[in-house]
């Protein structure tokens, strides 16, 4: 199952059936409580991270029926997340974080609106030693989400991308694909390098999509990917979207991957409000906090309204048991 190879994509329905057969979800997740933003929905967060002496989470904040979002920062206090007074408020959706050269790198989606209509979006990156020193670094290519960075053990930067749209359908016969490349330094990462990242095989069927959400250096040198797998269908005149949390691993030297597997779905969390009818079955994956006892806390946005946390078997452990193939293949 979890061996490195050139993979062939498997339909999300099949992967979901496998998930239900082996690890049927029982709504064991917990909805997170956010204070300081009454009457707003908080969802699609980053994973928790430590900075400025606090455990912090960045999250998307908006009114239920308003598409205009902000990214705000909350610190953990007991079972709640408290809005940090005076912390930056960024015009970004769906924030995510990593650390490069001992600095926080935060990204999110910047949207250009024409009234209620989104006409363009880009992924923006900020960096800084503290929340209060965050500065804009660069923007990714136009109309590309799910760009993720990871500083590997040798200091180089793994770059994961996710082109999509009509160009993908015409050139590759699919809605979206994950791209992967390596930069020698963070200074080399820009929209051009991201656009030129070669595409991986075997993550998505032609009519499905997804992307990377959080990246992990594994002890055997592989990169563990926690992400989302998605599909759509028309039901009762509504285009329903289904989002699942998924994982796979990649050998950065050979670009060989393990098969994608689903690790959680909406039924892993308590039922709750939904932004609209089409998002009822959505969990937007944030990532994992790995725990020493072989488990991990998975964080995710729930139906575009809430944040959930669920304890699962750490899906990255099995990838760390893989013996990498010896290869002299160089990586650009």
Structural class: mainly beta
Give start-end ranges of low-pLDDT stretches.
327-332
Count of individual beta strands: 21
Range of helix content:
under 10%
The biggest sheet, with number of strands, parallel, antiparallel or mixed sense and barrel status, is:
6 strands, mixed
| Global geometry | globular
Keyword list:
single chain; 332 residues; mainly beta; six-stranded mixed sheet; four-stranded antiparallel sheet; 3 helices; 21 strands; 44% strand; disordered C terminus
Structure explained in plain terms:
This protein is mainly β and 332 residues long. It has helices spanning 12-22, 166-172, 191-195, and strands at 30-31, 33-35, 41-43, 49-51, 54-62, 70-77, 80-83, 93-100, 103-114, 117-128, 135-139, 148-151, 157-161, 179-183, 209-217, 223-235, 238-250, 261-264, 283-290, 295-302, 306-313. Strands 2, 3, 4, 5, 6 and 7 form a 6-stranded mixed beta sheet that branches. It has a 4-stranded antiparallel beta sheet with strand order 1-21-20-19, with no helix packed on it. A hairpin with a 3-residue loop joins strand 20 (295-302) and strand 21 (306-313). The model is unreliable at 327-332 (pLDDT under 50).
